[in-house]
Amino acid sequence: MDDGAPGLLDARHRLTTVGLLLLVTLVAFESMAVSTAMPTAVTELDGLAWFGWPFTAFLVAQVVGMVVGGDVGDRQGARAGLLWGVAVFAAGLLACGVAADMALFVVGRAVQGFGGGLISVALYVVIGQAYEAGLRPRLFGATAAAWVLPALVGPLVAGALTTSVGWRWVFTGLLPLVLAGLALVLPTLRGLAVPADPPPARVARRWWAALAGLGVGALQVAGQRLDPVGAVVAVAGLLALVAGLRPLLPAGTVRARRGLATVVAARGLLAGSFFGMDALLPLTLGAVHGYSPTAAGIPLTTGAVGWAAASQLQGRHPGASRVRLLRLGFLLLAVGLAGTAVTAVPGVGGWPAYLTWALAGLGMGLGMPSVGVLLLAQSPEHRRGADSAALNIADVTASALCIGLSGVLVAAATAGLLPLRGVVLAVAGVFTALAVTGALVASRAAAPVGAPGPAADATTLAGP
Fold first, then answer.
1. Where is the signal peptide, in residue numbers (predicted)?
2. Residue bearing the bigger pLDDT, 223 or 107
């Protein structure tokens, strides 16, 4: 790159890039760290019976926050969306940190989730407005790398804070850093355009989002039970989820219609297949092969490192076909998933997972940034918030469904209804099939021929 070429850290973008990456890192740290602090928090608040509710409340509110964030971004611009997101997320951190009982703690987690949903969508809107198309692959690569450090040290730092100064610092300790990240981004936010002719408010979408979020929450609750009540809750949750998602996702998402619908579907396929197995892998190595918690967690680290490395690699080639990178990402993910399933075959040790999960991480590092680039290129500015919300909703709901599937089958194995090795093989087979499906439909993620506006950029970035 010559000295005059724009870069992520040039004078124009430096503060914005650092601020955005700091916000991503802090949200990622909270996501990774909260599971470590949660057992101590619920014990101290005398809320062990409510243990799952802080996670469920966060997830439900996050889905609603994404839809509201898309509406705010399209109507008021990126500045309003990010300001509200950071303010609400910070309020949630504070509420959790000072909660005197479990009910207030759950409310705080819901506020956090709502703010996190606003932030996740606002980041896409900011990137779409503040960075030219050639810089977006590099920025998405950098945001992926911003998840690696929290993945590596988040649980350790949270454990140390919980032991030494108390679990509340896992929440309140982030507040100054969150505000610092916002302060770095503010100068750029002030210069971003506000929509001159904003679309009408999409109030009905918020109710559909609430229904979808409740559906996800019901499925999470049902996954913890193996009885007729759990089955009824699961069916009700699935119906609510399907009904809620239908108006929130682009038409043709399930059928992978060419263009934006396939981009959104690809995000769901990537996230669901990867995180569904990611949640099951440590249990497999521990219960099947007797690995220690540390040894069983190492493949997760190799996956995170592979993800970051591939993200950086694709960012160095902004002119590469995003569709081809997406297809390659799905293929690497499928091979990684299938290879990881081998660890459940009798007579095979757990060591292949150390290599195969790094391969799966490489696939995610190529696929996820490519999906983000394709979305921003194909989404017109007046609808970018709503489309970004759809992308994030597909991610969250697919991950919840696949992780829930793993959880239900593991619970059945724990109850003696199924062999654990068989569960691992079956689940890995399903997730491998999802990744293969993604590879088969990846070519449809290119913009339709002759599409006007931003879709023309998508054709350039995506290739044939």
1. none
2. 107
126 shares its domain with 212:
no
Are the CB atoms for 136 and 461 separated by under 8 Å? no
Handedness of CA 171, 177, 179, 185 (dihedral sign): negative
| R_g over Cα of the chain | 21
* Predicted local confidence at residue 4, as pLDDT: 54
| Domain-embedded: residue 3 | no
DSSP letter at 195? P
d(CA 88, CA 111): 6
Residue 28 φ/ψ region, left for φ over 0, alpha for ψ in the -120 to 50 degree band, beta for the rest: alpha
Alpha-carbon gap, residue 152 to 162, rounded angstroms: 17
Q: How far is CA 105 from the centre of its chain?
A: 23
Domain harbouring 135, CATH code: 1.20.1250.20
What is the amino acid identity at position 433?
A: A
Domain that holds residue 395: 255-464
Q: What share of the chain is helix, strand, coil (3-state, %, to 5)?
A: 80, 0, 20
pLDDT at position 310 over 60: yes
> Would you give the DSSP letter of residue 13?
T
Look at residue 2 and tell me if it is in a domain: no
Sign of the CA dihedral running 43, 49, 51, 57: negative
Q: Does the pLDDT of residue 382 top 50, yes or no? A: yes
Question: Which of 61-65, 198-202, 269-273, 415-419 comes out lowest in average pLDDT?
Answer: 198-202
The pLDDT tens digits for 85-119 are 999 999 999 999 999 999 999 999 999 999 998 99
The confidence score (pLDDT) of residue 458 equals: 36
> Residues 208, 192: one domain?
no
Residues 235 and 377 in one domain: no
CA distances from 250 to 127, 199, 201, 383, 437 (A): 21, 17, 18, 11, 19
Average pLDDT over residues 60-82: 86
166, 298: one domain? no
Give the Cβ contact number of residue 417 at 10 Å: 11
Residues 23 and 168 placed together within one structural domain of the fold? yes
Global pTM value: 0.83
Residue 262 and residue 392 share a domain: yes
**Statement to judge: residues 442 and 317 lie in one domain:** yes
Say if residue 233 is in the same domain as residue 371: no
Q: Is residue 414 part of a domain?
A: yes
pLDDT in the model for residue 330 = 97
pLDDT beyond 60 at 370: yes
